[in-house]
Every structure is written in C-alpha cells, then in structure tokens.
Amino acid sequence: MKNITYKFYLRKLGNKHYLYLRLILKRKKSEKSLKCYIPYPEHFKGDYVKGTYPEAVKANVMIGYWKNRISNIILDHTLKRKEIDIHDILHDEFDCKAYFFDFYCKMFQEKQQLLKRGGWKKYLTEYHKLKEFNPNLNWADFDRDFAKKYYMWLINEKKNNINTANRALRLIKTVLNEAVREGYLQENPMKDVKTKWVKGQLTFLTKNELMQLHTHIFEKETEPKLKIVGSYFLFSCYTGLRYSDVKKLKWSDISENYIKIIQEKTNNEVLVPLNNKAKKILENQNKDTSLVFKCYSNAKTNQYLKIIAEKSGINKRLTFHTARHTFATVSIELGIPIEVISKILGHSDIKITQVYARILDPIKFREMEKWNF
To answer: CA Rg, the chain, in Å?
Structure first.
C-alpha cells in the first residue's frame, strides 16, 4: 500500500454533490466518478456517509467495494510480483471471479434497484456480518463446513435466533446461485444445505391490555415523546398498518371513513376502514403538515415502547410489529371474519392470517366453558 494512495471526496456539479475516487500511484493521478449522489454533503466523513437513507447506503457500499477491490488487486499483483497500473484498478472489466465480496457488492447494487428498502437492507446486513466473520472471504472458503461454522457463529457470537440464522444461510445460497448463473462458480457449494423455519411466539396485546395501554397513553402519560409514540402505535393496533405505512401516511390517503394506500412492503393497494378509536387519534394530529404522524425511527420507537410497556403495567416486550399482531388477534376475538382481516392486512394468502387464529386456540377452550352450566 505504500506505493499507492487513494481518497474519496465529493465534487460539486451544479447544485449537487457526487462521490469520487482519486488514486495516486508513482505520482500519476487518476479520478473516477462512483455515480453516487450525496443529498446531504455534511454527512460525508471521508470514507463513509452518515445515515441509513438509500443514497447513503449506496455510497457506503461503493466505498467498501472500492476499498476491497484496491486491496485485492494489490495483494494479487504482489503475489504475482507484477507491477500495478492504475488502469488495473479502475478498469471496469476487472475480473472479480476470485473475490467474493466484489461480486456481492455488484449483485447488491443490481438488487437495490429492484427491491424495496426492507429487501435490500437484508443484503446489506448480511454483507456486514460476513465481513465480520471473515473479511477475506473468497469462493474457495465455501466448502461443506462453511454453513455449519457460520451458523454456529451467528447463534453463539451474534446471538441471532434460529430463524435469523437460517434466513442468513438462505440469502447466501441466493448469492451463490446467482454466481453460478453468471459463471463465477460451476455449482453452488451450499446447494445441499437445509434451512428451516421454526414457529416463534408472536407477541400481541389482549383486548384488556389494549384498553389498559389506551388509558395510560391518553389519560396518564405526560411525557410528550412517549405520548407521540403511543399514539401512532395505538393507531396501528386499530388499523393493522405496518410501521413503514404509518410513517409515510398522508392526509391525502384518508377519506372520512377509510384509508387507501399502496403498502410499502408489498406494493399492493389496501383499503382500511376506520373505526372510532382510530378516528379519535386522527382528530388529535396536526393537520397543517402533509404527514399524519411525526414518527421516530423504528429502533427509537421500539425503545420508547419498552418504556411505555413498563409504565402502563404491561409485562410484554413490545415492538411496533406487536401492533399489527394485536389488530389481527383482537379482530378474530371480536368475531370479524378471517377473510376480511386478511384483506385489511393486505395478506397475499389467507394461510398467513390463519396463523393468528391458531394463536387464539386457548380462547376457544375458555369460551366453551360457557357450556358448563
């Protein structure tokens, strides 16, 4: 590395700032546009961009890609005792067949254009985990023992649950299958690895707990931040909307009696009738802004929900998705047909909704006690 230096910097073109790479080798300088627009130049910190918005994520992937690519080429040329030319690094047709992370970054960039935010964030999360597990990971490392070693590392070191660890293996298999299709590998070395999904314990509020939380938020809670979070959490409990849909909900999406939106996750249109409890929450929101709710980040929201649960006397670990589970289970308990609940939730298959019906099996036994008169 002593013969070559590189630097990432922003170049202002018109009113926009773009990410560039400058390379200097033996006093010869070359620059390359990384085709990343940075909307907030103050977030650029030299070798990363602060933030999780799409442009920042893309920029950080590109920075990581070029750092890795430069290191790989220097190592490759050193082993071959071959002189390095700047053209070797910047040439777009650089052969990355030997370098797994180069291919992963290339695939990520292509997927980013096709997937929703939640989808491409999974690829990004897995990229960082793999980097932590083995920063020099290459195709040859994917032998028969890799899946077992990585799985155990995810469970023991990263404290992932079984479903998260198995989802990670499935994503890696997807990447390796793509590598086979593009000719980087002859066959997928993980093709025989079996992954399974274990039924988890869904957390939801009972009807009584929901009313207990409602009373606390609107009659007892005095801290503004918790009142804000509690309001849009309860709104989700009464409508079944996901966090991503509540966060982007606009007044223009709402008529007098219903919400009509395109779901962020599925890209499907759903129509959600508004009950009186949901309407009451809407009445207390600021109508001078385009967005209905001022939402904190998902992580910060979940932190506040933990505090809210403790203060309201609910002994359950609340996350925002608990609201969606609560809407489904309470709706079933109230006798709303499961076909209707499925439509409101925007499920593509009613079998997904039927999971909630199975959760409520104990209620069936309790109700049947009424026959013991």
So the answer is: 26
Give tens-digit pLDDT for 249-258.
Answer: 999 999 889 9
Tokens of 272: 């959600």
Predicted structure pTM score: 0.58
How many angstroms separate the Cα of 136 from the Cα of each of 100, 127, 154, 209, 299? 9, 12, 18, 50, 31
With H, G, I as helix, E, B as strand and everything else as coil, classify residue 29. Answer: strand
The answer to whether residue 316 is domain-embedded is yes
- Same domain (yes/no): 105, 251: no
* Domain annotation covers residue 143: no
CATH number at residue 221: 1.10.443.10
Secondary structure of 91-126 as H, E, C letters: CCCCCCCCCHHHHHHHHHHHHHCCCCHHHHHHHHHH
Let me know whether 226 and 356 are in one domain: yes
Q: Has residue 330 got a pLDDT over 50? A: yes
- How many helical (H) and strand (E) elements, i.e. helices and strands, does the chain have? 15, 5
Give CA torsion, residues 210, 211, 214, 219, to 10 deg: -150
